[in-house]
Amino acid sequence: TEQFLLNSEKLNVAGQLAAGIAHEVRNPLTAIKGFLQIMDRESIGSKMYFDVLLSEVNRIELVLTELLLLSKPQNTKHKFINLESIIEQVISLMSTQAILHNIEIKKEINTDTCMISCDENQLKQVFINFIKNSIEAMPNGGPIYIKVFKRDNDSILIHIIDRGSGIPAEILKRIWEPFFTTKEKGTGLGMMICNNIIENHNGKLQISSSPNGTTIGIILPLNK
Ligand code: ADP
Ligand code: MG
């Protein structure tokens, strides 16, 4: 039955996640252990060893921090909030990074009602993840547009648009998988976490991409 299929699909993602976490945490741990053993044998800690240890520990920390977001949806705090103020806060949060990468983030509100019911921190996290991806897709800088439209009487549509290199079809198929990344220092968790949060808000994500850039669509129910 359909219910059974849904359950087994969920189980599959959980299994994939567990394997991924084990892998992601074990690899840096193995490296740390090895360096600790060398340092023990040589009775000395050289600067290079400490650098490697620190970067491996940072890696574990990053993966676990991102994963913690996944466990949050159980204790979400939904409030009525004006989406425009969330977007403004996110833009100001990201402003230093944006300037550093020669990026300009522009907001465009094309609706008179954007009151939604959401967990503010989680929704901010969604915007931050998408904006980070856009920044990383434009190494030479460029614009990022955040546009809000009234989709129909019951929902709004948010577009996050970049002018990056876009996502080839064979990669596009895999971006929702946990730990799938094309970046050397990526975690591959951002897209999956965003999808998870938006689903918890009864919303939907869309993505369209071409060699001229990528557009993420977020559909959220309007609160009237
Ligand atoms: P990460 O950013 O750690 O790689 P994500 O889950 O956020 O993990 O993204 C997965 C992959 O999707 C990225 O590695 C990248 O290949 C692709 N991707 C996501 N957003 C964009 C974008 N705006 N432009 C180009 N590629 C993107
Ligand atoms: Mg990312």
TrEMBL record:
<protein>
    <recommendedName>
        <fullName>histidine kinase</fullName>
    </recommendedName>
</protein>
<feature type="domain" description="Histidine kinase">
    <location>
        <begin position="20"/>
        <end position="224"/>
    </location>
</feature>
